[in-house]
Design goal:
Layout: H1 21-30, H2 33-63, E1 65-66, E2 76-77, H3 81-87, H4 90-121, H5 128-135, H6 143-153, H7 160-167, H8 182-210, H9 214-222, H10 227-255, H11 259-265, H12 276-285, H13 290-318
Antiparallel strand pairs: 1-2
Helix pairs in contact: 2-13, 4-8, 4-10, 6-11, 8-10, 8-11, 10-13, 12-13
Length: about 325
């Protein structure tokens, strides 16, 4: 009878340096460029969500509630009642009329002023560098500081403007530029808005002007085209796209203007310069009705988006941007 023997093979010790299954999976995952991009941008996206997305969403939620701090016992969800109330108020449509008047005036003013200044700075003349630097000065002044500065200039008692006009005999007595005439107050607001946006708009148009090939003007001169023809058929087509961009930005800034109105006129005289943003501020911090205030803000936001989409559609149709 044979005897069976058992041979035991030595057990190989585990390699401590051998990667685990999780480490292997994670290394394979990190080889994906999209995953690396998400991991690298994740903290930034989270910060944006906390700082921007959450407040936007929460304010929209507040706009769907009856949220007046003077009536805390009535705070609660009311659906779209705030939106119906606002859209049926004469106060809202008055503020919308003022807002659109200001926006249209500032858009037209910005386009005309920036085109004229850019054409001037594109010419060769002595002192052009100094003038270019001077045009950039408003860019360095914050909106609130600019409003305070212009309020002092237009001061009815000791303002610089009244002093100069009176000294040169253009007026017989000091005028109130902001507190009496509604049309004058609106004109001053539009002027300050145009002045404040002039540096950026001028730089955009000046860059477009300097990108025009000089050969086009030389060929037009050989063909005996006058200044008007050269401007109409060469300059204007090259400026259409930057002008549309300026119009988009001017429209957005005009619809959401607040600082200049708050500092210069306070919505007056009467309600002549009471734009939607200022009305929303009054609802929030005077009436303490944060529900209606957020409703005003979101209605204006929706209108701004619609206008922006119209501008973009225009640029698509002109072929200025590709889909």
């Amino acid at each position: 009878m044979s005897q069976q023997t058992t041979v035991e093979l030595p057990v190989q010790p585990a390699n401590p340096h051998q990667p685990s299954r999780f480490a292997h999976w994670s290394s394979r995952l990190l080889e994906n460029a999209e995953v690396r991009a998400y991991l690298m941008n994740g903290p930034m996206l989270l910060a944006i969500a906390v700082i921007s997305v959450f407040p936007i969403g929460y304010s929209f939620w507040i706009s769907l509630q009856r949220y007046n701090l003077r009536q805390p016992n009535r705070i609660g969800f009311n659906g779209g009642e705030n939106y119906l109330n606002v859209l049926t108020q004469a106060e809202f449509w008055q503020s919308m009329r003022v807002t659109f008047t200001f926006t249209v005036g500032s858009v037209i003013g910005q386009v005309i002023a920036s085109v004229l200044v850019a054409l001037l700075l594109n010419e060769q003349f002595k002192g052009r560098g100094i003038l270019r630097s001077a045009v950039l000065l408003p860019w360095a002044i914050p909106g609130v500081i600019a409003g305070v500065m212009w309020k002092w200039i237009f001061n009815p008692r000791f303002g610089v403007l009244n002093g100069l006009l009176y000294s040169f005999g253009f007026i017989d007595e000091y005028r109130s530029w902001l507190g009496v005439d509604p049309n004058m107050a609106m004109a001053v607001l539009i002027f300050v808005q145009v002045w404040n946006a002039l540096p950026f708009n001028t730089i955009v148009l000046l860059a477009a002007l300097q990108a025009i090939p000089s050969d086009l003007y030389e060929a037009a001169t050989v063909d005996r085209a006058g200044i008007v023809k050269r401007f109409q058929h060469i300059t204007v087509p090259w400026l259409i796209q930057p002008i549309l961009i300026i119009m988009i930005l001017a429209t957005m800034n005009g619809l959401r203007v607040f600082d200049l109105v708050y500092v210069l006129t306070g919505g007056g005289p009467g309600d002549a310069t009471r734009v939607v943003t200022f009305t929303a501020w009054k609802k929030a911090f005077d009436a303490l009705d944060f529900g209606l205030a957020n409703t005003y803000a979101y209605i204006l936001t929706f209108m701004t988006l619609i206008i922006g989409l119209i501008y973009i559609r225009m640029m698509y149709q002109r072929g200025e941007i590709e889909q």
